[in-house]
Amino acid sequence: MKMNDVTKQHRNLIAGEWVEGADVNENRNPANTDEIVGLYARASKDDAKRAIAAARAAFPAWSKSGPQQRHDLLKKVSDTIAARADELGELLAREEGKTFAEAKGEVMRASQVFGFFSGEALRQTGDAIDSVRPGVEVMVQREALGVIGLITPWNFPIAIPAWKIAPALAFGNCVVIKPADLTPGCAWALAEIIHEAGAPEGVFNLVMGRGSEVGAEILDSPEVDAVSFTGSVETGRMVARTCVAQMKKVQLEMGGKNPLVVLDDADLDTAVNCALNGAFFSTGQRCTASSRLIVTAGIHDRFVEALTEKLRALKVGDPMDSAVHIGPVVDEGQLEQNRRYVKIGQEEGATLVCGGEVIEGDTPGHFMTPALFTGTTNEMRINREEIFGPVATVIKVADYDEALRVANDTDFGLSAGICTTNLGHAAHFRRHAEAGMIMVNLPTAGVDYHTPFGGRKGSSYGPREQGQYAREFYTTVKTSYIQA
Ligand code: NAD
């Protein structure tokens, strides 16, 4: 297995050159904070400006390069990621903290995303329409937008960059990406792969660093045509305000407070496994995590008992240990936030059935046991605000109608799930749950790579990501009228 060299500074990729940053970021392992995963350059505003200028300069040739060249590049990236899956999975587990199995799965997802969009590069679609004026023909085609700024979060450090970079390049755009400062390693490895696969100079640029410096430059630059952002609601709102003021196209994916409804007629094992996976795997650090478990009275006690038993059996620890189910929380700040919400839940009168304790591992890391609250109401802060950790709540309701009402009573609308054996309730929920993605007898987290991803209300803004729907954001429509 190829390991990351911890003495090497991983530099930014600007105009096809590896460039030192203004500062160096020590990327540390959240499961062992004594361990430096790697040293990563932090770009300055000027570095970001140069990256944006390089992308602008590369755009005319790249946007006219033709689909074969773009297909070949993306296919090569997809194949290389897959070939390096073990090494990249280990890097991901060590910088972000999800278990090696989850991390390798995320790496393979990135490979699949590039594979999918290598095909999309070839599947250019358009329309030929007869004009209402005799002798005139109308053609509708999609064209690249220009320079796309990508700003990504820490929790999916390779999959999210992949599902933004791949469609951007497939449709002929040039890219400047700023990954999260907490997890630059996977984005750097992806940049190396894209560079070595032969991306022409300036077509793809990586500028690692802080949001307030590098991210702000991407948002403010008049040379950036569109911004795709994934991260918190607070930052996302600011990104939207800045982009709209400059009339930049913008796409936001933000937080969630996703409900999983469990009805009396649910298969108990299915419901418990959906809750366990959806709420707690990947240390609960998923925007699609089932943080609110809305359970009808007839199954409530059996469900809580079975889920608690499974939670107590989960092993928290080093993500590289194959016996471990839940890795560390990503950093000290997130751990503090989780602890604060556990305290808030107790002060609000909820019952902490299990977990919520910070524990010591074999190495100094941010370990916390998965926490389950019962006796909660949907008005409590723990049910209204995104915690983003291994913490879930149970809200007891009388029946399906109340469950649906509570599920929809939230500022968010990313994913919503239901566990039931009643086809009528499942169909009604699919129609009436106010979320972008609906899961029936499946965890709220866990989506395909070739289907649209995104939500409603406070969770998302702008066109969907992924699958064929990604075309909507990464291209613009041109209508031509032709008289022969
Ligand atoms: P964050 O908002 O703190 O940071 C996201 C990115 O924005 C980072 O790259 C950060 O450096 C950058 N940024 C911060 N300040 C900026 C500024 N002033 N200007 C420009 N860029 C700036 O989010 P995070 O903590 O990295 O990620 C966790 C959040 O992401 C959670 O809320 C989670 O729900 C959300 N998320 C959403 C999805 C989704 O698809 N809906 C997926 C994953 C994560």
TrEMBL record:
Protein family (similarity comment): Belongs to the aldehyde dehydrogenase family.
The organism's taxonomic lineage, starting at the top: Bacteria, Pseudomonadati, Pseudomonadota, Alphaproteobacteria, Rhodobacterales
InterPro entries: Ald_DH/histidinol_DH, Ald_DH_C, Ald_DH_CS_CYS, Ald_DH_CS_GLU, Ald_DH_N, Aldehyde_DH_dom
Aldehyde dehydrogenase domain residues: 18-479
Superkingdom: Bacteria
GO molecular function, one term: oxidoreductase activity, acting on the aldehyde or oxo group of donors, NAD or NADP as acceptor
Catalytic residues as annotated in Swiss-Prot or TrEMBL: 253
Cross-referenced PANTHER family: ALDEHYDE DEHYDROGENASE-RELATED
Keywords recorded for this protein, A-Z: Oxidoreductase
Name recorded for this polypeptide: Aldehyde dehydrogenase family protein
Source species of the chain: Limimaricola cinnabarinus
Keyword Oxidoreductase: yes
